[in-house]
Every structure is written in C-alpha cells, then in structure tokens.
Write a structure and sequence with these properties.
Length: about 100
C-alpha cells in the first residue's frame, strides 16, 4: 500500500509523524526486508531487518498511544517463530528441551 501511495496510507502517515515524501522509501525498505527474509540463504538477515522495521513501527504506535503496537510486536514474534520452524540453525541457537 505504501508503494502505490494509497489514500489511507497518505492520510495516516502524518499522524505517525512521517512526511508524505518518505512513504515510498519506507515501503521499499519494508518490501526489501521481506524479500531478503523469504530467500533461505538470507532469511536470518531478513529477520533482523524485519525486526528493526517492526521495532520502529511498534515504538511509533506506542508513542502516539495506538494500541496496534501489540500487533506489530506479535508480527516480529511470528517472523522469528517462522524462521525457528524452518531453519535448523536457528533451532540450534534456541533449544527447547522436551
């Protein structure tokens, strides 16, 4: 939605304190992070980038009092949860005992 500058995005960004001129840049960074995450060889880097992106979104939502900060936090948890389930190396770093 950021890449096509949809009306709800353009109207909502000032509420978060971001100028309209940065919408596409933020969208490109978000998309690139997702692409890097989807490539198996770079998935850990993608998870780190997405964590940074979602951390910024969580902090922004929390700062303005928007309760959707919980959603952005959970998305970050799901990013690492998905990586944990599909990458043996991550499971080795975070062992759960049975």
């Amino acid at each position: 939605m950021k890449l096509i500058k949809a009306a709800p995005v353009v109207q909502g960004m000032p509420r978060y304190g971001y100028p309209e001129s940065q919408i596409v840049t933020i969208g490109v960074l978000e998309l690139l992070s997702c692409v890097v995450y989807l490539i198996p060889n770079t998935a850990v880097l993608g998870a780190i980038l997405m964590t940074g992106y979602l951390g910024g979104a969580t902090a922004t939502n929390f700062r303005i009092g928007d309760p959707s900060y919980i959603l952005t936090f959970l998305l970050g948890v799901f990013v690492w949860g998905g990586l944990f389930l599909r990458d043996e190396r991550v499971r080795a770093l975070i062992p759960f005992r049975r």
